[in-house]
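The step that takes the researchers longest sounds almost clerical: writing a folded protein down as plain text. The outcome of that step, for a single protein, is printed below.
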Amino acid sequence: MATESASAPAADTFAALRIPKFRNYILALFTFTLGIQIQGTVVGWQVYDLTHDPLALGLVGLAEAIPAISLSLVAGHVADSHDRRRISLVTLAALVLCAIALWLLTQTTPLAHTLTTNARVNAIYVVIALSGVARAFLTPARQALSAELVPRELFSNSITWRSGSWQLAAVLGPALGGALYAIGGSALGYEIDALFMVLAALIMMTVRHRSPIREASDEPIMTSIMGGLRFVFAEPILLSALTLDLFSVLFGGATALLPVFAAEILHTGPSGLGILRAAPAVGAVVASAALTRWPPFANTGRNLLIAVSGFGVCAIVFGLSTALPLSLAALALGGAFDVVSVVVRSVMLQSRTPESLLGRVSAVNQIFIGSSNEIGAFESGLTARWWGAVASVVVGGLATLGVVGTVAWKVPSLRALKEIRTDPRR
C-alpha cells in the first residue's frame, strides 16, 4: 500500500504562496482575522467596562459557542454539498452586518440612547450569537476550500502559511483594537472592524475557484451529517489529538480573562489589553516561520504532547505573574507551543480525510477545537467569579497538564506516532 509522508520539509518554503488563488485566499483570511481580533478586543473591554464582572466576559464566549456548536455539523454538510467559496462570501457579508450592528449600539440614536446598561450588554450578546451562526458556516467551508486550492503534496506547507497568516493578524488585530478603543472608543473599533470585513469579502471574490461538482446522493441528511463524526471516531489517533486540544484549550486558555488582568492585576488599560491579546500570536508567528523550514513531523506524537504540556505550563506562569514583561513572555511562549499543536492536528485532519468529507470533518474539528475557545471563555469567567482570575488560570493550566498525562497514558499509539501519513482513500 503506497503512502505519502508529511514528515519531509517542503523544498520551497513559499511553494503554496506561488499559487495565485491560494495567495489571495491567505490575504482574505488575514484581513478577516484582523477584523475579528479587533472586534474581540473591543467587545471584551466594552463589556467589562460596562459590567466589571468576569462572568460577563465568559457569557460573550458562551453566546458565540452555542450557535457554533449546535450548527457545526449542519454547516459541515452544507460545505460538502455546496460551493465553498460562495458560502464563505455569504457568511462574510453576514459578519459585516454584525459589525455594523455593534457600531449602531454605540451611537446616540434615540433607540440606543434609551437602552439601560443591562439591555446594551444583552444586545451585544445577541449580535455575538448571530456572529457565531455566521462563523459556524464559514469555518468548515473556509478550511475545506483551503484544501482545494493546493495539491496534496503542499498540504503541510499551505497549513503552515494559513496558520502563520492567521497568527500574524492575531498579533496586529488586538494591538490595533486596543489602540482604537483608547483613541476613539468602541465606535471607532467597530468601524474599522466592519471595514476589514468588507475588504475580506472583496478579496475572497478574487479567488477564482469553484468547488468540484459532487454527485447527488440519496443519503438522508442526518446520515450525511453524522458521516464526519463516524470518520473521526474510527480514527483513534486523530480522535485523541482532537480530544487533547479540546480539553487543553477548554482549561488552559486565559484570553477571556485578559481584561481582568489588564485592569486589576497588571494595570495597563485598554492599550495594554491589546498588547496582552497580541502576545500569544507574536510567539505563534515566530513559531510558524520556523515551521515553514522545519515541520514538526518527526516524532509527531511526542512533539504534540510536549507542545500541549508547554501550553499548560505557560498558562500557570501567566496566572501567577504580576509583572507585565513576564506575563507577555508567558503568553508569547504559550502561543508558540499552541501553533505547533495546531499545525500537527491540521495536517493530520487534512491529509487523512477524503475530499468529500472535508467539510463535515472540519465541522467536527470546529466542535472539538473552535468552540472550546468560547466554552473555555465561559469556564474561565465562571471560575474567576468563584475563585478569582489568578486561581482560575492557574488551575486551568494544571488541568491541562493532567489531560496531557491522561492522553499519553491511555493512547500509547499517539505517544508512539513517528510521522503523519496520508490516507490512500483520498
Residues 180 and 189 are 5 Å apart (CA to CA). The domain at 16-209+223-415 is CATH 1.20.1250.20 (Growth Hormone; Chain: A;). The chain has 15 helices and no strands. Confidence is low (pLDDT under 50) at residues 1-10, 422-426.
